Amino acid sequence: MHRSSWKQLLDTRYFKVMTLTTVAISCLAIGLVVSSGLNWARPAAAQNQITPPQGAIAAPASRPDSFSGLAEKLSPSVVNIKVVKVEKAGFNRPEMEIPDGPMGDLFKRFFQEMPQAPESRRTQGAGSGVVIGKEGYILTNNHVVEGAKEVTVTFANQKEYKARVVGRDPKTDLAVLKVKSKESFPAVAMGDSDQLKVGDWVVAIGNPFGLNNTVTSGIVSAKGRVIGAGPYDDFIQTDASINPGNSGGPLINMQGELVGINTAILPNGQGIGFAIPVNTAKPLVPQLISTGAVTRSYLGVNIQSITPELAKALNLRDRQGALVADVVAGGPADQGGIKRGDVIIAYNGKVVEDSHHLPALVAATPVGQEATVTILRNGQEQKLSMKVEELPGDQTVSEKPVHPTAGKWGLQLRDLNPQMAQRFHLKEGKGAVVAGLEPGSRAAAAGLQPGDLILEVNRQPVGSVKEVLEKIDRSKDKDHLLLLVQRDNGKLFVPLEQQG
Fold first, then answer.
1. Distance (Å, rounded) from C-alpha 319 to C-alpha 354?
2. What is the pLDDT of residues 368-379, one digit of tens each?
3. What DSSP assignment string belongs to 61-103?
4. Helix, strand, or coil here: 178?
5. Is 50 exceeded by the pLDDT of residue 397?
6. Catalytic: which of 77, 143, 342, 452?
7. CB of 119 within 8 A of CB of 90?
């Protein structure tokens, strides 16, 4: 073949090979790009479609972006309360024995020449309140207005009004004021504090240190707190900042409803405040408005908490309920069949968790209404019916706290005689008086005190030291002792236990 023909043929084949190669490489590149793009997209899509495993807890809701809406809506319903009180003043002369002789004359002359202060003086106090009725009814704390001679409330728009205290209830530390005016006031809606859950967001509005309409936020830290403020303790604990001057101000939920009345703080604590649940106030407000006071029911029992030692001594399965240490003669409980040593575990179908829970349940029952009380007696559950009566005077269903611990007997007993009765302010009668306690003994560690009158030993009545010693000696369980003692005007069980 001619040389030029060979060259032409090679050039043609070379061109075709190069063309095919170029096409193949291009296709391969396109394929790699497409496949790579698909592979990159799949993981992203998979991540977006990941579902939490079954039973997993969902992430909590984030903090609200702003509380401005609640503050704007509710601040007009919050008032600053200024109180003027008139208190007795004067020097408290020390109570001391004046010696005879020249030194005694000097002391007498000093006190006689002491300048006298005015009989009374005006003092001022401050707090917060919240409007609960468009007619001008304001809810606040009793301790804010107790003893007030003048009360002035200032609204967010700086309008001031003279207010009248229409009702107070020291036992729950609640009070209602009334502002007289022809205009209508912005009232807050009452919520349901029972629906609050630990961790829910809440807002407090008040006038701490005189700083009007201060808004703070936090969460519900706990519910049902007992802080020793009274027989009906049942506080909401919150970390929303509460300071002096916040007392009586509202605690608000995220729906803008009143769920509590801010009332107390721990002096040395931070982020620990307490509010009265609004459900405690709801049934009391109408009574405070109509009569100025609260009428409560009572059972006529003296109750105490069940400690681990008491539960063991009484052969109880657990510590739920309120232990009846005494029954008022002729009272509703006495007529209904409740006896000393019974454990009240339910009231009108509601579980009684402990001794702090029962008084509020009873107090909320209308006077004269039939109540069903569920008790444990000798391990057997019983239901008793009784008609509750009006709580007489300042008497209250109270708890006598006991914190017994193990130790030795260490009892020094004396028969009750006129001299012992006078010494320990007891009524004359029969019984064995605790005259002394050996340091470090079981009796001392169990909480027994000089002056306690022993009425029972292991659920059997005693009337003398001899009978106490006989009952102790005859006890089948030599390592445990259950005493019923009278202290002041109440009775309580005290268990003693010998530790090996």
1. 8
2. 899 999 999 988
3. PPPPS--HHHHHHHGGGEEEEEEEEEEE--------PPPSSHH
4. strand
5. no
6. 143
7. yes
Residue 193: active-site member: no
The residue-averaged pLDDT of 108-133 equals: 69
Q: Closest by alpha carbon to 178, among 280, 279, 75, 79?
A: 79
Burial of residue 138, with CB atoms counted within 10 A of its CB: 0-12 exposed, 13-18 middle, 19 or more buried: buried
Contacts of 454 (CB under 8 A, 6+ apart): 413, 431, 432, 433, 434, 462, 468, 483, 484, 485
User: What's the full length of the chain, in residues?
Assistant: 500
Q: Which amino acid is at 122?
A: R
Domains of the chain: 189-291 (2.40.10.10), 297-390 (2.30.42.10), 411-497 (2.30.42.10)
Mark whether 247 is an active-site residue: yes
Judged by DSSP in three states, 335 sits in: helix
Long-range contacts of 367-374 (CB under 8 A, 24+ apart): 367/295, 367/296, 367/297, 369/297, 371/299, 371/332, 371/347, 372/346, 372/347, 372/348, 373/299, 373/333, 373/336, 373/338, 373/344, 373/346, 373/347, 374/344, 374/345, 374/346, 374/347
Question: H-helix or E-strand containing 4?
Answer: helix 3-48
Q: Is 300 left (phi over 0), alpha (psi -120 to 50) or beta?
A: left
- What pLDDT, on the 0 to 100 scale, is given for residue 38? 41
What are the tens digits of pLDDT across the range 458-496? 888 888 888 888 888 777 777 788 888 888 778 889 888
Instruction: Please check the confidence at residue 330 and state whether its pLDDT lies above 50.
Output: yes
Under a CB-based contact definition with an 8 Å cutoff, are residues 360 and 232 in contact? yes
* 173 given a catalytic annotation: yes
Widest pairwise Cα distance in the chain: 160
8 Å CB contact between 375 and 384: yes
Catalytic residue among 77, 128, 169, 173: 173
Q: DSSP string spanning 233-302?
A: --EEEE-S---TT-TT-EEE-TTSEEEEEEEEE-TT-SS-EEEEEHHHHTTTHHHHHHHSS---EE--EE
Considering the entire predicted model, what is its pTM? 0.61
In angstroms, the CA 286 to CA 292 distance is 9
Exactly one of 77, 193, 247, 297 is catalytic; which is it? 247
Cβ–Cβ < 8 Å for 306, 274: no
pLDDT at 346 over 90: yes
β-bridge pairing 137-140 and 174-179: antiparallel
Pairing of strands 301-304, 322-327: antiparallel
Residue 496 corresponds to which amino acid? L
The 10 Å Cβ neighbour count of residue 4 is 8
Among residues 442, 464, 446, 454, which one has the least CA distance to residue 485?
454
- Determine the Cα–Cα distance for residues 361 and 358; give it in Å rounded to an integer: 5
